Amino acid sequence: MEETQRFCKKCLLRDIDPDRYKEEIEGYINALSPSDKAAPKAYAKRLHICESCEYLLAGTCQACGCYVEIRAAGKRVVCPKKKW
Questions:
Q1: Which residue from 17, 19, 51, 66 lies 20 to 30 Å from 7 (Cα-Cα)?
Q2: Distances (CA, A) of 31 to 15, 26, 82
Q3: Within 13 Å, how many C-alpha atoms sit on residue 21's CB side?
């Protein structure tokens, strides 16, 4: 039986293989049920707002600590700074 290893939440991003990191983020987003997932246009708009935000650092929101791509993918979530 093959085990899939998830990256350690205590690891620094620099220690994570970039391809593996991308797979993990996409995996979380793809695991959302369609009823919990934001519409593609809303997701793109949220990411665009995050890209210009002063709290964005290496894909992480410094206001709350989330990965912005995961947070933006949820239908019923909001920006901690109420920007979307």
A1: 51
A2: 24, 8, 25
A3: 14
